[in-house]
Amino acid sequence: MKYRMNWPSGIKLYVMSQRAIEFVERRIAQFKLKRNAFCFVIGAVVTPGLSQELTSKFFGVDKSTAARRIDTLEKKGFIKRVHNQENKRENKIFATELGEQLYNEALVALNDWEELYIAENPGQNFAFIFEALKEVIIPLRKR
């Protein structure tokens, strides 16, 4: 696929981010999780003990949606819920060993997506990546 170099930087960044997501999804396909559920596992790894209520707020979903996702992830063995001893009505979310494994696989894909992308697109001009990043970073540095 050829990329036009005159795309706005926002579109270039969008394309790059979508490619990164594709690589992560391929890397974690063995876990059979949808993207929205995957985010909950990452949240449990990065912020262990986050309450179920704060988890729903962080991911911008209502409490019942968060509860359903957490139920599913708990049944599949990715996370565990622990009742807060100080507040019996509150659950804290933690990643299990399987959740940690998922996180580590995702990190490999996130850290190496550029290499994977280049390997899948031999001979392609990747200048647009650097151009897009420059267009975003330079204005941010001026702030």
Please provide a brief summary of the model:
The chain is mainly α and 143 residues long.
Q: With helices defined by DSSP (H or I, 4 residues minimum), what is the helix count? A: 6
Shape: elongated
Query: Got a strand count?
Result: 3
**CATH classification class:** Mainly Alpha
The fraction of residues assigned to DSSP E strands is 5-15%
Quick one: biggest sheet? 3 strands, antiparallel
Question: What is the succession of H and E elements?
Answer: HHEHHEEHH
What is the CATH-assigned architecture? Orthogonal Bundle
- What is the total number of structural domains? 1
Short descriptors:
143 residues; mainly alpha; Arc Repressor Mutant, subunit A; three-stranded antiparallel β-sheet; 6 helices; 3 strands
Describe this structure in words.
This protein has 143 residues and is mainly alpha-helical. The chain has one domain (9-141): Winged helix-like DNA-binding domain superfamily/Winged helix DNA-binding domain (Arc Repressor Mutant, subunit A), CATH 1.10.10.10. The protein has six helices and three strands. The chain has helices at 9-27, 35-46, 52-58, 63-76, 97-120, 127-141; strands spanning 50-51, 79-83, 91-95. Strands 1-3-2 form a three-stranded antiparallel sheet. Strand 2 and strand 3 (91-95) form a beta hairpin. The radius of gyration is 19 Å and the shape is elongated.
